[in-house]
Design brief:
heterodimer, A: mainly alpha, two-stranded antiparallel ribbon, 4 strands, globular, disordered C terminus, B: mainly alpha, two-stranded antiparallel sheet, 15 helices, 72% helix, disordered N terminus
């Protein structure tokens, strides 16, 4: 799916005026994403701190975690509902190993020890979850990962010795490195932007690298890949490891952004919201995760007021999300991206006919 | 041919009586010996008065026996929920993630029925019919149109569960309801099990809530009824044939769509009835839908997806491990259940009684 898409976006350059050098051709072909990147880099100059962190920052973090799900589902054909849980594990670990308002639990290690270890633990957790579900096929994956997610949620609710039960943790500071307080709105925004851009680029790169191509082969026909000599299970587990790395970094950033973590952070609702984000955006391309995330964040932030303004109960937000999700699954299974591609194809077809 | 023989079919469950038992003991003498020793050990734990040293290690016997009884009766409830889930999957390859919502809805409807009519037995019928209608509507309106698309169906059930649970919050709010046990089932029932010995040498016998035992017996009866219906009736033969090869059944001229409708309605109705049981056993409130969805998932993952005997075995294991965990490892109760699931998945990815 992605391969055709990549050539599709390349053909825009062919249709237009012929650029001469390789660099200009590349810039031309990738102009939308470069423009978006430029806008995001310059955003702090025009946007308020609220927009910067609570809208764009939150979108990018959710987009990262959804990206890890998109990578597994889109390229690996494994719809894993445990990605929010991986993010939650990383978030909890950074609070337990690092600093929080609870000196009885937190170990107060410096960030350069706590953050890598938290990521390692979360990635190990995600890999283990992957190893459990990678041996089974298709629909089993969604069940097993959902069971893992709910079990972790119940554990965080029940356990007071590590996860501080229902209350969770507050006052989790982001580190101060190079004299910069990374909790301040603008540095935090750039931190988030850097890591989300890195994960986006990483996913795009891997999807075209031999490993990514093999993974897509495993998605399309595991038996044939097995026959050619690929280790199907190992490819699937490695995909989980890579996706968990992205989700883990996202989880730590999420904790730094919100300054708190509680069972709800990786709860059932959050788990399902993440799937909704990925599916609504579209599983066909990495950008879909971020498109889904911006739709979700904007809805979540403004729908309450909008609902009340139209005379509805603002608390029915979840119904709106559910119905929207149903509409996408029923009518456009490839998400917003699919809608966009079909619209492009139609307009292009029309203009083609006009020329003729 | 499978229809005539049905011998290979797994929903048949187990071997053919004493013959098969004797043969399997002959094949696995060590395993048989170990199982026999375990059975005798458990029986001794239940029936004998515990020696003093024993109580120091395992706590008071009353606790253990109560956990055991609670676990087994909870297993009965889990079986009611999970058997519908597994039946629907077995025939239609549809992982119904809205199953927990149906359970909760049944519980609420049962509560309303008891409030309006005062009849506990009638509330079962009301809950069954309401949920069966919803299940049938789901099958006719949605799933019929996307046959063979496993993942999409599952995503739709997930979307439905989001909407259902939010609508139920709307109607019933966040309150906790308990369905009143009828007078004739109130109170404890004496059992011939010694829980402690008084200093005078007089034995104290266990008292156990009558309603839980009655409901457990009813769950066993329903299980046996389902087994008989699947193995001794014409419609059961059709269902088993459909599980084996749905297309072939349809080609032979049987009305597969009608069969799907019946099975979906029955499975959903069973979940609704289980909701009334749960409302009497425990209580019905927000969040119970995901609790019982998780329970169904764990039961079918452990027992084997699509197998009724597997659901019974899985329900017993999960119910017991939950209650035992609650008594002996309070902080990590969910971990015990989860570990069982992990071990089963690692050793037998298809579940204890599942087949590939």
């Amino acid at each position: 799916m992605t391969v055709t898409q990549a050539t599709g976006s390349g053909s825009i350059g062919v249709g237009g005026p012929q650029p001469d050098s390789v660099v200009t051709r590349w810039v031309y072909a990738h102009s939308p994403i470069l423009l978006l990147g430029l806008l995001l880099v310059l955003l702090p100059a025009i946007a308020s701190d609220f927009v910067l962190n609570q809208i764009v920052g939150w979108t990018l973090i959710l987009g990262m975690i959804a990206l890890s799900l998109m990578f597994l589902a889109g390229y690996g054909g494994m719809v894993s509902l445990a990605q929010m849980t991986v993010a939650g594990v990383a978030g909890y670990m950074i609070t337990v190993l690092g600093a929080s308002s609870l000196p009885s639990i937190s170990l107060f290690w410096p960030w350069w020890a706590a953050a890598p270890l938290a990521i390692i633990i979360a990635v190990a957790f995600g890999t283990l979850a992957g190893a459990l579900s990678a041996r089974t096929e298709g629909i089993y994956t969604i069940m097993i990962t959902l069971a893992i997610a709910v079990a972790f949620f119940n554990l965080t609710l029940q356990n007071w010795s590590i996860f501080n039960g229902f209350n969770g943790f507050t006052a989790i500071p982001a580190p101060i490195v190079f004299g910069i307080n990374w909790r301040a709105p603008v540095p935090l925004y750039y931190l988030i932007l850097f890591f989300s851009a890195l994960s986006y680029a990483g996913v795009v790169y891997i999807s075209r690298a031999p490993f990514g191509i093999a993974l897509q082969g495993v998605r399309d026909n595991p038996r044939r890949m097995e026959a050619i000599g690929y280790n199907v299970t190992a490819h699937r587990i490695a995909a989980y490891t890579f996706a968990s790395l992205i989700a883990a970094v996202g989880g730590i950033l999420l904790v730094w952004l919100n300054n708190q973590i509680s069972p709800g952070t990786a709860g059932i609702e959050a788990t399902i919201d993440l799937l909704v984000i990925a599916v609504v955006g579209g599983l066909g391309h990495p950008i879909g995760a971020f498109i889904g995330a911006i739709i979700f964040v904007v809805l979540r932030t403004f729908a309450l007021d909008a609902l009340v303004a139209v005379g509805f109960d603002g608390r029915r937000f979840q119904t709106i999300i559910g119905l929207g999700f149903l509409a996408v699954v029923l009518f456009s299974p490839d998400g917003v991206i699919g809608l966009w591609q079909r619209w492009l194809a139609r307009t292009r077809g029309l203009s083609g006919r006009k020329v003729r | 041919m499978a229809i005539v023989n049905g011998n290979s079919n797994q929903m048949l469950g187990g071997g053919r009586g004493a013959d098969a038992l004797a043969r399997s003991i002959g094949h696995h003498p060590v395993a048989a010996l170990m199982i026999a020793a375990a059975v005798i050990g458990v029986l001794w734990l239940i029936l004998a008065a515990w020696p003093a040293g024993f109580e120091d290690v395992f706590g008071r016997k009353r606790l253990f026996i109560n956990a055991l009884f609670n676990g087994v009766t909870l297993g009965g409830l889990y079986f009611l929920v999970a058997s519908g889930f597994t039946l629907i999957f077995g025939l239609m390859r549809n992982v119904n993630l809205a199953h927990g919502s149906l359970y909760l809805f049944g519980g609420y409807m049962g509560y309303e029925a008891v409030e309006w009519t005062g009849s506990w037995l009638l509330s079962y019928i009301v809950a069954f019919v309401c949920c069966a209608i919803i299940g049938a509507a789901m099958q006719v309106l949605i799933f019929r149109r996307m046959e063979g698309q496993d993942l999409r169906q599952t995503l739709v059930t997930l979307g439905l569960s989001i909407v259902f649970s939010d609508l139920m919050v709307w109607v019933w709010g966040g309150n906790t309801f308990q369905i009143t046990t009828p007078d004739y089932l109130m109170g404890p029932i004496p059992t011939p099990i010694v829980v402690a010995v008084k200093s005078s040498g007089e034995a104290i016998f266990l008292q156990y809530p009558r309603v839980r035992l009655v409901i457990f017996a009813a769950a066993i009866l329903i299980g046996i009824g389902m087994w008989l219906a699947l193995n001794r009736t014409r419609i059961g033969v059709m269902i088993r044939a459909g599980v084996d090869d749905r297309d072939m059944l349809s080609v032979l001229g049987y009305r597969v769509q009608l069969l799907f409708l019946l099975v979906f309605a029955f499975g959903a109705g069973l979940a609704g009835m289980a909701g009334v049981v749960g409302g009497t056993f425990q209580s019905i409130s927000l969040g119970e839908d995901s609790h019982f969805l998780l329970a169904s998932l764990q039961v079918v993952i452990v027992g084997g997806l699509g197998s009724i005997p597997g659901a019974a075995l899985g329900a017993l294991i999960i119910g017991l491990s939950e209650q035992i965990g609650l008594v002996y490892f309070q902080n990590y109760a969910t971990v015990l259940t989860f570990l069982i699931m992990v071990i089963v998945l690692a050793l037998r990815p298809q579940g204890l009684l599942g087949r590939r």
